Amino acid sequence: MTTANLSTSLDLPQPYLLFLGDTTEAGFAKTAFGLRDWAPELCVGELACSPDAVTLGLPKLTPAQAYAKGARSMIIGVANIGGRILDSWMPSLLEALEAGLDLVGGMHTRLVDTPALVAAAERHGRRLIDVRTPPRGIPTASGRKRSGKRLLAVGTDCALGKKYTALAIAKAFRRRGVKADFRATGQTGIMIAGSGMPMDAVVSDFEAGAAEVLSPDAAADHWDVIEGQGSLFHPSYAAVSLGLLHGSQPDVIVVCHEAGRTHVLGMPDYPLPSLEETIDLNLRLGRRTNPAIRCGGVSINTSKLSESEARQLMATESRRLGVPVADPIRGGDEFERLLDHCLRG
């Protein structure tokens, strides 16, 4: 098998019922929100096991109702700290299998390692599909410079817009006639794209090698737009961020941040770094494998701001930092300037 064939490919039973568990923090339901926003035609409804859980605004369906509406799998749409399947979820997961739905999970705790689910799946003739399973045979990184261009979304924290930024930039590049592919590195991105590399499930020694596999040699005018993971400043997840940075060898980074977030998600004792610190550290460490790395701009998630507040913040930060600042979901002239800056040179 060549390394070009090592990235994970999926053939998921569609469409989906999205399971939200009892998650009350939207940042921990990023899988469900990502699928709703980037593959809405595949999402028939949502299911939670608590009235206090976040909602996607989709029809609230039981597994049986979802099956009747055409759903063929239920996706666990949450990613809690530690990636655990909670006991409180089990009745809903078992109900989905009984109703005729396959189960799809992206948790660190694998569905196939959960005896009650394995027994139920065998009993009902259903499949348990674990997305967060890296392929075998990943090599250690070579450090060899590869042909083609690469853009990596990096961030001040986890769950603040790296995936959305990469998806939006790849789509905008293609709209401009630029050859570009979105390269998924997490469970949600893999579910959206149908292929990718679950970077946070790769053994540390092979992280950079996995990133090289994910983004192989390409035509000189082709861009791989790579979904980032975690943050170099995250007390738990910095290791995967560094391996991805070194192995991606990005020509351009886009730094992602959420307006108003001041501390690491779920870790109030850890303040976030400034945008200047984030740009500087990513460039300094990225130069180890690509001395020509540069910052294409900043992507700010302004979803909690009004239109006028968002535009004012982007303009102020762009003047302060000296690079384009945009919200790719809002689009507009700010986003076009960010694209221009990423593609220059």
From TrEMBL:
Pfam families: DUF1611, DUF1611_N. InterPro entries: DgcN-like, DgcN-like_C, DgcN-like_N, P-loop_NTPase. Residues 56-134 form the D-glutamate N-acetyltransferase-like N-terminal domain. Residues 141-333 form the D-glutamate N-acetyltransferase-like C-terminal domain. This is EBNA-1 nuclear protein. It comes from Steroidobacter agaridevorans.
